Amino acid sequence: MTKLSNRITNLSESETIKMSRISRELSAQGFNVINLSLGEPDFKTPEHIREAAKKAIDEGFSHYPPISGYVDLRQAISDKFKRENNLDYKVSEIVVSTGAKQSICNVALCLVNPGEEVILPIPYWVTYVEITKLAEGKPVYIHTDIKNDFKITPEQLKAAITPKSKLIIFSSPCNPSGSVYSKEELKGIAEVIASYPDLYIISDEIYEHINFIGKHESIAQFDFIKDRVITINGVSKAFAMTGWRIGYMGAPEWIAKACDKLQGQVTSAASSIAERAALAALTMDLAPTYEMRDQFLKRRDIALSMMKQIPGFIVNEPKGAFFIFPDVSYYFGKTDGTNTINNAHDLSMYILNNAYVSIVSGDAFGDSNCIRFSYAASELQIIEAISRIKAALEKFH
Ligand code: PLP
Asked: How far is the centre of ligand 1, averaged over its atoms, from the C-alpha of 263 (Å)?
């Protein structure tokens, strides 16, 4: 009998982290594994940011920062929201945390009561489900289709809302589908939300700058629901700073205050040094970010054109983030004489064990017909990985 709490027993291990662990184990055994399962840029943090952190150490930023973050950092975030997203958030409406992940968790714990419903469009970022469970909320899913670019419609949202609905969590650009909602699509969703005054929305915009179709659109721009939107962002993806652990949110002040109270008891604050580095990131020229985005676009095009050559893969064109999420259900029920592929999990394990490429089964994101490739890897690795996969799957045709 486990002595662990139900809370932790019911929490699933992150599938993406699990696949990375298995691929590391295979690598340790001498196999040349290409890891396309992780969601982090493979670039170096820009020099200007690294220098700011070194300077912060030397200048003695070694004490607890304010719980919600240094005021000049929060001012820089407020300026960023205005400059890049045309959103008005006062410093008192901004909370810095140890990553977008913590910001989302803070909000869920502050808003959701046991049994209240959290609406999650599929495919979702896997963490949304587990955070909902931690908050003792009930996940309610909206199924989408690759034909609609994996986006929900206002009608689908309306149909999912019940008197128990408390929160919607979604990302645009989306991990794992790479879909990006247009202003008109967001407006349609906002208009539905407007009719339900007790419903809140977490807009996860962590991939804002990895967007291949132009201007990023935030749902908080619609004034008629802004007092119910929590805009989440961070420095992990835009500035290749995943390990620095800095995220932030803009939210109505009463929600920001609640998150400050929660953080005050759980982490005290984010790291002082990382906060100084984040200040440099958010006040610098975005040229290095755009360079990374252009690299991602180049890699997407290579990966996409190769993947379209694999028989049975149905591929949408991701408009942002750094993932491709093909439908691979063509392979279900097929056998090479030794291995039978029953589902996306079987296919991803087959690919790992035979092509030595680590990817993630779509089940982790709520869609069991798909698999997720990250193209945050070098062009050579991407070309080699997809060639190997194509060859390994030939036996199933
Ligand atoms: N939101 C989404 C959709 C993500 O894919 C990720 C990371 O993979 C995060 C948030 C986490 O961001 P952070 O590193 O700021 O916690």
From this structure: 18
Q: How far is CA 123 from CA 62, 165, 223, 292, in A?
A: 41, 19, 27, 25
Ligand 1 atom nearest to 101, measured from its CA: 16
Q: Is the pLDDT of residue 17 over 80?
A: no
Mean pLDDT of 75-83: 98
Cα–Cα nearest to 177, from 371, 329, 318: 318
Ligand 1 binding pocket includes 175 (Cβ within 6 Å): yes
Ligand 1 mean position to 376 CA, how many Å? Answer: 14
pTM of the predicted model as reported, rounded to 2 decimal places: 0.96
Look at ligand 1, atom 12, and give the residue with the nearest C-alpha.
Answer: 100
Whether the predicted pLDDT of 272 surpasses 80: yes
Q: How far apart, in Å, are the Cα atoms of 181 and each of 208, 211, 376? A: 11, 11, 22
As a 3-state breakdown, the chain gives helix, strand, coil percent values, each rounded to 5, of 45, 15, 40
Question: Does 171 contact ligand 1 (Cβ within 6 A)?
Answer: yes
Whole-number Cα distances in Å, 266 to 67, 257, 262, 263, 394: 10, 14, 6, 5, 51
Ligand 1 atom closest to residue 103's alpha carbon, by position in its atom list: 16
Q: Is 153 near ligand 1, meaning CB less than 6 Å away? A: no
Question: By the 8 A CB rule, do 324 and 303 touch?
Answer: yes
d(CA 41, CA 320): 13
Q: Does the beta carbon of 123 lie inside 6 Å of ligand 1?
A: no
Q: What are phi and psi of 28, to 5 degrees?
A: -65, -25
In terms of Cα–Cα distance, which of 269, 293, 319, 250 is closest to 77? 250
Atom in ligand 1 nearest the alpha carbon of residue 100: 15
- The whole-angstrom separation of Cα 110 and Cα 93 is 15
Residue 49 · residue 280 · CB < 8 Å: yes
Q: Whose CA is nearest to atom 5 of ligand 1?
A: 175
Q: For residue 36, what pLDDT is reported?
A: 92
